[in-house]
Amino acid sequence: MSGTETAKIEVWWDMNDCPIPEGYDARRVRPSMERAFEKIGYTGPVSITAYGDQTKTPDHHLLALSSTGVAVVHTISESTRSVMYRDMVEWRGQNPPPGTMMIISDQVEGDFSWDLARLQQRNRYDLFQANSMKSRDDLLLVYYANWRWEQLLEEGGAPPPVANGLSSAAMFYCKSCNFDCQSLKKFRKHLSSYKHGLEEAINPPDTRLSCVTKTWARNYPATPEHATAKIHVLWDMNDCPIPEGYDARRVRPSIEKALKEIGYSGPVSITAFADQKQTPVHHLLALSSTGVDFSHTLPFRPFEMPVLVTSAEWLWDNLLAVSETKRHILHKCSESESERVVAASTGMFCCTLCLCDCKSLDDFNKHLSSKEHTKEEKRMTSHSQSFPHRQRQYKISNYYDEASRISSQDQTYEESSPEGVFSPEIITFY
Ligand SMILES: [Zn+2]
Ligand SMILES: [Zn+2]
Questions:
Q1: What letter does residue 251 receive in the DSSP assignment?
Q2: Which ligand approaches the C-alpha of residue 54 most closely?
Q3: For residue 59, what pLDDT band results from cuts at 50, 70 and 90?
Q4: Which of 74, 126, 265, 301 could bridge across to 54 with cysteines, CB 3.0–4.6 Å?
Q5: For the region Disordered, what residue ranges are annotated (predicted)?
């Protein structure tokens, strides 16, 4: 935590998923949340917005909420999730970190957490959640705490005797009509009006979640601080193999050219991950002669697409063809290209099963046929057969370890690979 202890806390609460329990005094919602936050050291001002179909919420609850400074938002039930998310994104835009976000909802999985995880990667807020269901594993979002709704409600003491320090801002909102007011009477009148009914029938709020990060996977030009920074490429040769008849020595210049075209000119180190047994010797030699490291790993597929903000993405075949088209046009350039100093990588061979580095292909082959290696490979294979889930994690952990290693060495870095950019910061695998 950095300064977030006293930063503002914004709460988005889906009243349909997490309703006020029967017989519960709704004035206790705010102090309960405040108490829960205080217990873990968060003392910033708490702002709460309750979303739901408020035509179904009894008056005494709405009065209790508004009297304790909880903003009440009406929307049709099917749109609650998307309306809440839109408000969340808007809040993020207006409130740069530090800050704390709390989501009270049972519907955070899917696009919601995918998009939010990507937003978190750019601007990180402390994130909290409460839900009424049994807690599930959310692989995408990292929460600082995950509460059960009913437990959270029992945190607080007595409700405040009088409303104090409440702002005069609007307390009741109708998202269907963009209407707001400060009195429950006016709110009720609005919700039962013909105009409101018509608006909801004709033009209801969008029920689909609009993902703001979907357009992010574009090839943006390098920012100045990244233009000359080191580039590390983690290349999965199973997903993106060397095409039939393609000269593997052209992989490095192709990647370098593609990067250069969008302004990245830093030294490029490349590590190819593949099963050595499935990689022809001439490829291994071609790669190592162009300074591409080779990492022997068993062909396990990563189990999910990474939820990562990429600065650029290419189709593998397109990327490889980049140098080909250029070569036809610029014959002279391809000459100097081959004389180019091979930067950063050394063309080493590495066995990721035994964590063994070899400088030459001969040594590498010797290692791969050694007893120690065979034993290790057998152990890995039998292990992953009995635990299929492990297989996938194993491969990812190779990438992850590699990415972590690099990020701990370099202060500024931009990792690029045909598959995307890895951020050791946000993705966690257990
Ligand atoms: Zn309305
Ligand atoms: Zn080995």
A1: H
A2: 1
A3: very high
A4: 74
A5: 370-390
Extended strands (E) in 267-383: 268-274, 292-296, 349-351, 356-358
Cβ < 5 A residues, ion ligand 1 = 174, 176-177, 179, 196
Domains of the chain plus CATH, in order, are 9-215 (3.40.50), 221-415 (no CATH)
| Residue 383 banded pLDDT, cuts 50, 70, 90 | low
Backbone angles phi, psi at 71, to 5 degrees: -75, 140
pLDDT digits (tens, 9 = 90+) for 169-188: 669 999 999 999 999 999 99
d(CA 317, CA 281): 22
Distance 390 CA to ligand 2 centre (A): 18
Beta-ladder partners of 294? 272, 349
Structure tokens at 214: 């979907």
Complete DSSP assignment for 46-101: EEEEEEE-GGGS-HHHHHHHHHTT-EEEE--GGGHHHHHHHHHHHHHHHSPSS-EE
Mean pLDDT of the residues in the chain: 79
CA of 204 to the centre of ligand 1 (A): 10
Q: How remote is the CA of residue 129 from the centroid of ligand 1, in Å?
A: 29
Taking a 5 Å cut-off on Cβ, the residues next to ion ligand 2 are 351, 353-354, 373
Please write the tens of the pLDDT for every residue from 86-143: 999 999 999 999 999 999 998 888 889 888 988 888 888 999 989 887 656 666 777 7
Instruction: Read off φ and ψ for residue 293, nearest 5 degrees.
Output: -70, 145
Find the 287 Cα to ligand 2 centroid distance in Å.
Answer: 19
CA of 271 to the centre of ligand 1 (A): 57
